[in-house]
Every structure is written in structure tokens, then in C-alpha cells.
Design a protein that fits this description.
globular, 56% strand, 1 helix
């Protein structure tokens, strides 16, 4: 009896250990990026309706190429847009395709941004925050925070 019980425990333990060998752990690097201050308007191109460059706290910068949008900024308006975002950081260069929802307040200048997107090469980006846009297309102040999850 003891031999059979020992054999069952050994088989069960072997099965558990072997199944653990097949599992794959995916390492996903997570970055937190804080964009703060005004944005510089760069010359537009055929692909970019608006091209903005902002400073990243801790070093580097972010550029956003607005490709498509629905609605113009104004009092109590929600603007939907999409485009390409590039983060040039001290340790990474990240390219992403993003969708942005911006809700403007009653003054038509103060807004809150919500951004989501896919990182080239695998991963996601999400975040946003408050900013001031006056006149339309010119960001005078921002406090945006993004979480980037790299990897497949």
C-alpha cells in the first residue's frame, strides 16, 4: 500500500513539474511618462494636420502627428482624433498609433485628454490628463501622464 501511495505522489509531482516547464512567462516592461508644459507647433506635412512637440519630465520629448479629427475645439465640445505619437526618451524611442478623446470645458480652452493606442513592435499606451489649448491648435500648458506597456 505504501509503495502505491508513494508512486501516485511521485507521478502527481512529476506531472505538476512538467506542466510548469511548458508555461511561458512574458516579460512586459512598463514605463511611466509625464509630459508637462507647453507644446511647440512644428511645420505640418501632407500626413500631419497638426504636429506638436512637448517636453517629457526627466528628459526627452514627445511628438504627436494629428492625422484625423472629428469636431473643432470649443465650449463643452468633445474632440475625437487619431494619429501617430513618438516618444524620444533617454532609454527608449517608442512609436505608437493612438486614438484621443478630448473633452473641453465651458471656456473652450481647458480640456481633459484620454489617450489609448498600440505601440509598434507590441504593447500598449494609455493615459492623458488636463491641458489648455488656446487658440485652437496651440497647447499652452499640459500635465499628461501615460503608461506604456512594452512587449507582445
Amino acid at each position: 500500500m505504501d509503495c502505491r501511495k508513494t508512486m501516485r505522489i511521485a507521478l502527481l509531482l512529476s506531472a505538476v513539474l512538467l506542466s510548469g516547464c511548458r508555461s511561458q512567462t512574458t516579460h512586459r516592461e512598463v514605463l511611466h511618462v509625464h509630459v508637462h508644459g507647453p507644446a511647440q507647433n512644428l511645420p505640418v506635412s501632407e500626413d500631419c494636420f497638426l504636429l506638436l512637440r512637448s517636453n517629457v519630465v526627466g528628459g526627452g520629448w514627445m511628438t504627436y502627428c494629428l492625422e484625423r479629427f472629428i469636431n473643432d475645439p470649443g465650449p463643452n465640445v468633445t474632440v475625437l482624433d487619431s494619429g501617430r505619437l513618438t516618444l524620444n526618451l533617454p532609454t527608449h524611442t517608442i512609436h505608437a498609433r493612438v486614438h484621443v478623446t478630448t473633452k473641453f470645458g465651458p471656456d473652450g480652452e481647458h480640456a481633459v485628454q484620454r489617450l489609448r493606442g498600440a505601440v509598434s513592435g507590441g504593447g500598449t499606451i494609455a493615459g492623458g490628463g488636463p491641458y489648455v489649448e488656446a487658440p485652437p491648435g496651440h497647447v499652452g500648458a499640459s500635465d499628461l501622464r501615460y503608461t506604456i506597456r512594452l512587449g507582445a
